[in-house]
Write a structure and sequence with these properties.
It comes from Pseudodesulfovibrio nedwellii. By secondary structure, the chain is an alpha/beta fold. It contains 7 helices and 7 strands; from the N terminus they run ααβαβαβαβαβαββ. The chain has a single domain (3-202), classed as Rossmann fold (3-Layer(aba) Sandwich), CATH 3.40.50.150. The protein has helices spanning 3-13, 18-28, 45-56, 94-104, 118-128, 142-152, 171-183; strands spanning 35-39, 63-67, 111-115, 132-137, 156-164, 191-192, 199-202.
């Protein structure tokens, strides 16, 4: 899949702007061995970018995509009410993810889709998941983000990367990340991909 393919289809298959797609690709080609994980797949655009690299870098990486495929869950008191209108939105289907992979010519052979709310799927799936090289979080709300961090961050390899799509967008997402980093004394520098939302750091 070429950069031209991503730019042409990006607005249809992913909500991520070009700068975040470019950053994701750069991170995926520079990390140690380990699987790629995305939590919050929507139509699978970013997941397809990750899978495309995983399929071609010679390391036989597995790729995991977690999504309810029912939209966003209800907010909790930890979230700001300014995102309330998004509850129930961001809904896509597994079929749309397959369509994205097919449209972009990316094989689904090494990609596993896990359907369900994060608090139902991630704790169990994380038990048998291999070490993680790239973890991309796009769960928007406090509890969704915190669940992902609690179960998946410990599996990230040294030199691996965590990308948080909504850190600068939603209050609950930022609160979950800040609390987790403080609790576990993580002082690795947060790098802004763009001033509108995404940050990332290297473990």
């Amino acid at each position: 899949m070429s950069k031209e393919d991503i730019n042409i289809h990006g607005g249809i298959r992913t909500m991520a702007p070009a700068v975040r797609i470019s950053n994701l690709a750069q991170r995926c080609v520079t990390v140690p061995d380990g699987c790629f994980v995305e939590c919050g797949v929507w139509r699978g655009g970013c997941l397809a970018v990750m899978a495309s690299i995983a399929n071609t870098d010679g390391l036989n990486r597995a790729v995991y995509g977690f999504d309810s495929f029912e939209g966003l869950p209800p907010q909790t008191p930890e979230d700001s009410e300014d995102g309330q209108e998004f509850v129930g939105m961001c809904r896509a289907t597994e079929a749309e993810v397959h369509e994205t992979f097919t449209t972009w010519g990316v094989s689904l052979e090494n990609t596993v889709l896990k359907k369900g709310w994060f608090n139902e799927t991630i704790p169990e799936a994380s038990k048998d998941m291999p070490s993680i090289a790239v973890l991309r979080l796009d769960g928007d709300w406090y509890e969704s983000t915190l669940t992902c961090l609690e179960y998946l961050y410990p599996k990230i390899v040294p030199g691996g990367v965590i990308i948080v799509d909504d850190y600068l967008t939603w209050t609950g997402c930022k609160k979950a990340v800040d609390e987790y980093r403080a609790l576990h004394k993580i002082d690795n520098i947060l790098i802004e991909t763009d001033p509108l939302g995404e940050v990332w750091w290297t473990k």
